Amino acid sequence: MFNRRDNEPEYACLRNREPKRKTNQWGKEIETAPEGSPLREEPFIVNGDEPGHNMRNPMRYHQHGFYFNADNCIGCHACETACSEKNDLPPHIAFRSVGIVECGTYPAYRRLNISMACNHCDDPVCLKGCPTRAYTKFAEYGAVLQDPDICFGCGYCTWVCPYNAPQLDPVAGFVRKCNMCVDRLEVGLKPACVAACLGNALDFGVIEDIPDNRVQAALSIPGFPDPNITHPNIRFQQMKTLEREVKRVDSMPIRYHLNDEEGRYLPEVDEDKFPEKAWNLKKLLTSHEMAHVAFTLSVQAVMGAFLLLVLGRWAGFAPVAAIADAGVGKWLPWLMVIIAAFGLFKLNMHLGRPHRFYRGFYNLRHSPVSREIAGVSAFFAGLVGYAFFNLFDNAFTGALRELSAVLALAGMGFGGYYMYRLYRIKARPYWDHGHTGVAFAATALSLGSVLLALAVLAGGVYTAALGQFTGWLVALALAAEALALIVQWKQQHKASSEAAVSWVFMTRTYGHTFTLRMALLGAAIATALILGLTGWAAALVPLGIALFGEKLLGRALFFAVVVPTTMPGAYFWKNPGFIEHAREVGLADNPMVGVAYERHHPFRLDELIRTIRETTWEEKWDQFKRIFTG
């Protein structure tokens, strides 16, 4: 518990006055636990320290929040420094950061600084999304707290939060965030960032209890993401008049324009920051998210192949049913097991703490990630059972094989659906579109059918009928995906959201790569039509090459171009362009720059061989412990 001094200044102390309102501007009760609630009888323990009764805050069971007067913020970063000092944060992590938007030109230039941390929302999407249940919204002060010891470093909370509040430490491999300084609140003090504010820009207290000398309690200011996503507990005052368009000073090609109908500033593309059209293939294929590319492509391909194999056999579809009577019918399911296991391995090793993978099942009630993990795990277990019992030829093992198939199909349906749902994130508008589901289904059917046909071709039981079926299925799946992509482009490329910026990255930053992807898509559709019309086995291999290339580039672009609804950065701090530059030129080697290298690099065989050859056994053992124990 925080030790309060006897001479604490008045500006650092909470007001502790009864709120005049019973509900906040979102209609949520400000009192988090009414009188007589069992929650009020529980002790409030901070870091294992239970305070005495003389420390009990009378406003403990009321929703608290921040107040930010943008007119007063001078951009001194004292709030950042105080927060980092209190929480003993490394230089590359900050629970609170100051971003900048600007408008006008000299001498009529205006700049708006925005100090932002966790907003301890009424509807915390980080809490619902976290698969490990590391988050809790406490009745005490309405604080959304996160336990780093429970987190296994998947980073999904950083995807769903619109305000960049949870911080995934690339060095430590887990997430941390603002804790509202609840230890200070309990002894009647404001959070450290508020107490350190030089310009009286930050304030804190019971939500809707407007501080003295404030006349506004607005829900949004320029640069702040849509508050309807999470109902954040922060209120703003901004009396200075800005122009109808304001720009960010970081590298993100986003500006904000005033929408008179909604009465707030909405994001749009900043043409002045259009990047040059380029390939950026190396950057694309060595990104941190390549583990998700490998996982989704491999598991979806296996799901599609298994679905066609089982349903085709049950329906008596001759080209598929014949596989069971051939040698390929014995090893094909094991090939699927190997491919799916590769995807699961890549995904697990992507975690900051891969040895704690089992915690992914903790939040089945709320998290789509937990549900995806449960469904895919059930599918994989059923697939392994199917492959094992398929090795035997008797009635008992045959029944067990069919039961395994049912389990796998059930897991496929459940896990496949939540594999799609977990990307329908309001904080990432490019993903939040029906094209995502169409693309995932098309990938499963197209890659799965080609995988099945190639295996049959290798097993020597290929038939023209199977080739024609594969060709038409692939052509229809890819045509549906192309149509959905066109619809998505028409709806998003000029939208007032970050999705429009995603299309700028797609067609400019990765412009040549996107053109190649579309060329491969056209080639795959054409080859699939030839295969569907003729059944020629010779068309199957080029179809597989074109299809795999298109899916690899398309899925990598899916992860690379998404733009979250994050807060604006500064010239260096929280600036994506500067972060990338610092890592490229070596500035990140200086800890004071505030940029760290990614801990988990993409798997490269040459680096693995070099590491094995050039390190001692003690160094190898140390690296092994670092990877598997964090």
Structure, described:
This protein has 630 residues and is α+β, with helices and mostly antiparallel strands. It has three domains: 10-273, Alpha-Beta Plaits (2-Layer Sandwich), CATH 3.30.70.20; 281-560, Formate dehydrogenase/DMSO reductase fold; 602-630, no CATH class. Helices cover 45% and strands 9% of the residues. It is built from 19 helices and twelve strands. It has helices at 78-87, 125-129, 156-160, 182-186, 192-196, 281-285, 290-315, 318-324, 328-349, 368-389, 395-421, 434-459, 464-492, 498-509, 511-534, 540-560, 576-585, 605-614, 617-629; strands at 64-69, 97-103, 110-116, 135-137, 144-146, 167-168, 175-176, 202-206, 234-237, 245-248, 254-259, 264-269. The strands form four sheets. The chain has a five-stranded antiparallel sheet. Strands 8-1-9 form a three-stranded mixed sheet. A hairpin with a 5-residue loop joins strand 10 and strand 11 (254-259). Mean pLDDT is 92; it is low at 601-606.
Describe the secondary structure blueprint for this structure:
Blueprint: E1 64-69, H1 78-87, E2 97-103, E3 110-116, H2 125-129, E4 135-137, E5 144-146, H3 156-160, E6 167-168, E7 175-176, H4 182-186, H5 192-196, E8 202-206, E9 234-237, E10 245-248, E11 254-259, E12 264-269, H6 281-285, H7 290-315, H8 318-324, H9 328-349, H10 368-389, H11 395-421, H12 434-459, H13 464-492, H14 498-509, H15 511-534, H16 540-560, H17 576-585, H18 605-614, H19 617-629
Parallel strand pairs: 1-9
Antiparallel strand pairs: 1-8, 2-3, 2-10, 4-5, 6-7, 10-11, 11-12
Helix pairs in contact: 7-8, 7-9, 7-11, 7-12, 7-16, 9-10, 10-11, 12-13, 12-16, 13-15, 14-15, 15-16
